[in-house]
């Protein structure tokens, strides 16, 4: 008896008469224990490649033994179940896509609406409200228009310099001092009749009659000379439609208001002044008066010799002017009763100097 060849197990798949409607899968599991299966008929190694061999009929129809020691088993899955599962998955995917697109569109719309109101189009305290692709303004009381631009003060003019403000939803005129009424139409001059051709003006919230040159008084009721408009004992004379003042010696001006306080000159005037000078004049013209200085001659070394004038009793106060050279300076008036004047010269060229008249200005 010849030596037997080793047994060979060949994988066999059985269709078992199933139709194409069934999907067949192979389930492989370990078959190390092959005691329950009959061996296939021995096949000689020398058999041709396509030799047909007989399969044992006692192997279960839905199982086969593979040469890798596995056996395979058919699993049949109905196509209706597979179709149901596929449809369910497609429904989930489509639903998620629709939800994403809808959410994206909603977010885009919200952003668009937000951008409309983000520019704060509503004025005067109005509140912007989104309405689909448009907006509308919820205006505060008294205001109207698309952007709440129309105010109760629109096209309303308060009189006599008054200003309009919105109060409790309606207009309110804030009047200047002395004026009153809903539109500031009531003036301090209302009912005031200035006499003898005078006219009324409002000054500091009260009326004031501006009289012609021949009359004076609160209501222009007196001839001008009765009120004695001339200062420093000047005499008033009516001349045509005006008056004039005859001033005593030492007083000047249209109403004799300028009184010569003193005349000052540089040392040695009209001869040349000395070098290294530093001279001061301190002027005090008394309560309620002011100081005026008027130069009648001026000739100094330019940019080296100076006349400096201060608005107060010393050089620590505001300097009104600093003059040098050969040009005649303009008149200068203090703001109060004091004036300080300082003249300085260097050690080089000398000139004629200056002459100035100091006046006391009497307040009206």
TrEMBL record:
GO molecular function, one term: calcium ion binding
CDD domains: CUB (cd00041), EGF_CA (cd00054)
Residue pairs linked by disulfide bridges in the UniProt entry: 139-148, 175-184, 247-256
KW Repeat (keyword) present: yes
Keyword Flavoprotein (UniProt): no
PROSITE patterns: ASX_HYDROXYL, CUB, EGF_1, EGF_2, EGF_3
CUB domain location: 247-361
Superkingdom, taxonomy of origin: Eukaryota
Domain EGF-like, residue spans: 113-149, 150-185, 221-257
Alphabetical keyword list: Disulfide bond, EGF-like domain, Glycoprotein, Membrane, Repeat, Signal, Transmembrane, Transmembrane helix
Residue ranges crossing the lipid bilayer per the database entry: 81-101
SUPFAM superfamilies named in the record: EGF/Laminin, Spermadhesin, CUB domain
PANTHER family from the UniProt entry: CRUMBS FAMILY MEMBER, EGF-LIKE DOMAIN-CONTAINING PROTEIN
Designated name of the protein: Uncharacterized protein
